[in-house]
Amino acid sequence: MWFFQPSRRWDWLQVEVSSQCPAACIYCPTALFRKEGSNLLMSMETYHRLLPAFSRTRMVFLQGWGEPFLNPHLFEMVLQAKSAGCQVGMTTNGMLLDADKLAGLVQSGVDMVAFSLAGCGETNDAVRKGTRLVQVLEAIRQLNRIKENERTARPVIHIAYMLLRSGLDEIEQLPSLLAGLGISQVVVSTLDLAPIPALNREALTPSSQDEYAGIRARLDRLVTSGKQSGLEIRCQTVAFPFGDDASVPAEPDMAAFLPVHRPACTENVEWAAFISAGGDVSPCVYKNLPVTSPSGITEQMGRSYQPLIFGNIREQSLEDIWKSKAYRTFRRSHHSGHLEAPCQGCLKTMVTS
Prior knowledge:
alpha/beta
């Protein structure tokens, strides 16, 4: 677990080094909006604009909506962030990890690498089209062998697991699938953003307290089973956020629902920021989808979508953008719990662990 250092301004900066991805996961905006996509690789010129901020950043996470290993400058980016005193992490689908890239993960000093999964068998390959579970697991084994040969514990290995409603029945197979692979932590998340209406059925948004209790009980069993297998598993689920008399429509407009607790965003927007491959600064990835024309995807999403961008690092420093009146007002709204329109009803403010 990473700890906040008071001398730093940012807990982390999420830097999208690529908004391109060769995979076609059924729930990912990069795949679903490929025709409208920005399809960018962050340039070193843009990346260098962030270097002054790194000295005040605890961790740099080199990943956004795309596959980071598509960027040919990735390990140079790692080394520059490490030179600034940052911890460095990234998430990958694992498909591009040949022997050289796996060795580079160790030699460049990456602190954490997460591998994405969304199933414990054939389901993963069907949902995460263009990826193969067996190849991901073999990449993890190879990485562990390199770490052992280099006598280092870094990078620690995480699993970022996307739990869809259709995958509930197999989730409890996860500990046996990952046992003995040297996994430091597994984070199980649910679908917080359904980019197209057809995916609403895959979101584990509970329609009642009873349904929430049932989902939570299943995930609690998963956590216990993981401990027995030597795995730390953290599960994030959407809480039932409604009053006792509330009902949930068939296709809910989440912005209309009011949480019964003070909203706390899991994206840590008061102490973190997202920088897109093109240099745009947003509070999180969900407010900056990888598209060139946001208005063009509204019809496909089945609801209005507007990005939330406070500036671009090619025109202003990150520090100046962070201190702008608009960004400060936004952060104050999260601190007070009185969220502004772009974040009202966002499932990221309704997550429990």
